[in-house]
Task: inverse folding
């Protein structure tokens, strides 16, 4: 089956000026990535015994997982609570999650000193059930698989009735078509199970990602270090999941010159202030309960980070989205969604990096150029792959209509 | 050979063979208060372990009562760094001639264990410039090690006989163990592109299995290091404090810190001044394991969530269909 890059004239082209820039970033990133595998972690990163985890874990993994949360939150509201109006958002969110998690896995692999032994995680005799990381790893691996399964119907839809294999194989067109239809029908029957499984797995590892740093104890600043970290991570993942869907939808509208789905997005955006509100209450209780609030006013870098993270990422978008008028304008939505995303990115950065101080404080860490390059390269790759799939598979309904 | 005692520091009345099993059973002197405190603390520890055990099911690892450890008497250490040489030698690490270790200039800067130096001696100056304290550091071989609890493939393991050992053939190199170690005593071979390892003291398994002392302990010319059963070492440590109250602060570092460690330290001033982290009486792993097993005990929560979501799906769909 051939992929026809431009099905119709109306369809936006893959390459634009912006895409060339992104491609260049991706190229540099892949070079840095090659250097990492040839020369080793020591040569391309500034990691040390004091900072065993750096930019890659904080951004590629921790932020990657959080920002890909749109997949399961949207699947939940659209499919499980059966809200018809949100259905157009499901596929873009699913695609983001699928590509996002794929790159989380690649990010992990890049960071692993013995990446070639990664498969040990799949061997039951290696399993260590006390490890939070073990649970995260198993959940993420399973979830990636579930995401690919959830995406299969889109692939079927794309090729059913359109299987055009090149000449020597053309006789296979019929059987392939029949197979696709069979697969499609079979998947439709069991899909609910996979959707529920996806939500369960997400809740598990999104929260456990927070538990991950509890064992770091005093190395993590008391403003963040709390046994409630799993709950905070889960709540913020819910919120940022919706924010990401809104953000992407608005961005895609802009990029493909489509009318933004204001009404649906405004409706979806209503979930965010509720979640941010619960998050805030929980956070306040936690800070009071542990007495950690005293660190808020000591003027340290940590206190500043915390105030920015909270003010910018929680309070401000809460205020914007509580305003009915703002919530119905693309600009208000975009601003609020971006703030929530930035807030969560900052939170993960704080927890995994900025508020982390080694016991023996002789090390400092600032990522090497190559670390930035790999991270930027991965993000660029995500953008390119997303664009390619969106242009060639039935993901964004409105884009399909343009093409028709 | 167990519990080699430094004769000049032990008092006759306290010399008994074998040493008492627990500190509590030797409660006979004027130090009743601290003993009672100790009993109380260990009672609390035991209780919390027991409750955690209920939460965690059978995950708790049993340790041998005669598990080994090392007692470091920092008031005896002269900072000769012979132990560093012995450690390098035993572990096949880059090493120099023994006399090179007499070079005192190394002590000018703070060092810590690295992937090529599994133990280091640091000098901490005091008010009296003639009496610095020398602090040996290496993996503490925690009783309930955070590194082992963190490792997702079981490459870090607490052996029932005391040592916490690393198995490179399992390791995937995620370095979560290093994030978890509260002392930051695990080091990584970042320069190795293909087969990097986590490096830390292993307590010389090949020597101890032959009945020999760990290399550093055997090397120490002043017997600042004592290898033996942990419970005997603890008793010995308390005995030294009791008989030489002016010489020591009344604190055996590692008795309770982070759930206890196999390496125990005696010193003449507060351990905080010597750069030892102040850790609570339970292991950092205790909390995460409780959270983790609390949430995922018997997989009940995830299964319930699955059922709940299924029910929501069913209900909302039928609600939509009926009208
Ligand atoms: S680096 Fe190796 S030993 Fe450490 S936690 Fe990861 S797999 Fe385990
Ligand atoms: S000191 Fe660190 S590396 Fe050694 S056993 Fe304890 S947690 Fe593990």
Result:
């Amino acid at each position: 089956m051939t992929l026809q890059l431009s099905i119709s004239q109306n369809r936006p082209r893959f390459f634009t000026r912006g895409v060339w820039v992104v491609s260049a970033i991706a190229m540099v990133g892949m070079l840095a990535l090659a250097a990492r595998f040839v020369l080793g972690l020591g040569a391309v990163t500034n990691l040390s015994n004091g900072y065993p985890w750096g930019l890659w874990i904080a951004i590629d993994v921790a932020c990657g997982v959080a920002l890909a949360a749109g997949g399961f939150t949207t699947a939940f509201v659209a499919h499980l609570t059966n809200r018809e109006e949100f259905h157009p958002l499901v596929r873009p969110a699913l695609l983001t999650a699928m590509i996002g998690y794929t790159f989380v896995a690649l990010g992990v692999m890049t960071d692993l000193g013995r990446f070639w032994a990664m498969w040990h995680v799949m061997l039951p005799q290696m399993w260590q059930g006390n490890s939070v990381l073990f649970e995260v790893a198993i959940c993420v691996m399973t979830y990636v698989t579930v995401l690919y399964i959830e995406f299969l119907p889109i692939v079927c839809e794309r090729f059913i009735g359109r299987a055009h294999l090149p000449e020597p194989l053309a006789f296979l067109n019929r059987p392939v078509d029949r197979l696709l239809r069979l697969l499609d029908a079979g998947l439709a029957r069991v899909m609910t199970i996979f959707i529920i499984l996806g939500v369960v797995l997400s809740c598990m590892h999104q929260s456990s990602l927070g538990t991950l740093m509890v064992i770091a104890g005093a190395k993590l600043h008391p403003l963040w270090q709390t046994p409630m970290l799993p709950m905070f991570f889960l709540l913020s993942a819910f919120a940022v999941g919706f924010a990401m869907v809104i953000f992407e939808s608005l961005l895609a509208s802009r990029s493909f010159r489509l009318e933004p789905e204001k009404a649906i997005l405004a409706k979806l955006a209503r979930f965010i202030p509720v979640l941010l509100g619960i998050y805030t209450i929980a956070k306040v209780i936690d800070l009071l309960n542990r007495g950690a609030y005293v660190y808020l006013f000591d003027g340290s870098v940590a206190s500043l980070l915390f105030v920015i993270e909270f003010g910018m990422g929680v309070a401000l978008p809460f205020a914007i989205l509580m305003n009915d008028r703002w919530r119905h304008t693309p600009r208000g939505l975009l601003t609020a969604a971006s703030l929530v995303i930035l807030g969560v990115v900052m939170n993960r950065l704080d927890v995994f990096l900025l508020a982390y101080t080694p016991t023996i404080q002789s090390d400092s860490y600032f990522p090497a150029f190559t670390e930035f390059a790999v991270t930027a390269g991965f993000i660029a790759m995500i953008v390119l792959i997303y664009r390619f799939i969106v242009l060639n598979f039935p993901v964004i309904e409105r884009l399909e209509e343009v093409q028709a | 050979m167990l519990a080699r005692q430094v004769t000049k520091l032990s008092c006759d009345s306290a010399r008994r063979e074998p040493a008492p099993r627990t500190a509590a059973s030797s409660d006979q002197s004027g130090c009743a208060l601290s003993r009672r405190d100790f009993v109380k603390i260990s009672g609390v520890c035991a209780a919390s372990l027991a409750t955690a055990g209920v939460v965690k099911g059978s995950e708790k690892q049993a340790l041998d009562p005669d598990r080994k450890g090392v007692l470091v008497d920092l008031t005896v250490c002269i900072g000769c760094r012979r132990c560093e040489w012995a450690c390098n030698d035993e572990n096949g690490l880059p090493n120099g001639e023994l006399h090179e270790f007499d070079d005192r200039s190394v002590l000018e800067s703070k060092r810590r264990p690295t992937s090529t130096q599994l133990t280091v001696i640091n000098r901490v100056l005091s008010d009296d410039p003639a009496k610095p304290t020398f602090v040996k550091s290496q993996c503490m071989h925690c009783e309930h090690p955070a590194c082992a609890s963190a490792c997702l493939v079981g490459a870090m393991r607490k052996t029932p006989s005391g040592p916490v050992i690393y198995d490179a053939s399992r390791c995937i190199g995620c370095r979560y163990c290093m994030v978890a170690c509260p002392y930051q005593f695990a080091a990584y071979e970042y320069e190795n592109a293909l087969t990097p390892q986590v490096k830390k003291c292993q307590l010389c398994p090949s020597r101890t299995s032959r009945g020999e002392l760990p290399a550093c302990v055997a090397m120490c010319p002043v017997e600042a290091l004592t290898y033996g059963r942990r419970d005997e070492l603890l008793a010995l440590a308390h005995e030294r404090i009791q008989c030489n109250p002016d010489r020591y602060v009344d604190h055996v570092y590692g008795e309770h810190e982070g759930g206890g460690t196999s390496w125990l330290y005696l010193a003449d001033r507060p351990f905080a001044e010597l750069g030892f982290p102040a850790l609570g009486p339970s292991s950092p792993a205790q909390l995460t394991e409780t959270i983790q097993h609390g949430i995922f005990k018997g997989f009940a929560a995830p299964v319930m969530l699955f059922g709940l979501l299924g029910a929501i799906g069913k209900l909302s769909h039928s609600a939509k269909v009926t009208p």
User: Anything to note?
Assistant: The pocket of iron/sulfur cluster (ligand 2) is lined by residues B 139-142, 145-147, 164, 181, 183, 185-186, 200 (CB under 6 Å). Chain B has nine helices and nine strands. Chain B touches chain A through 60 residues (CB under 8 Å). Residues 32-56 of chain B form the longest helix (25 residues).
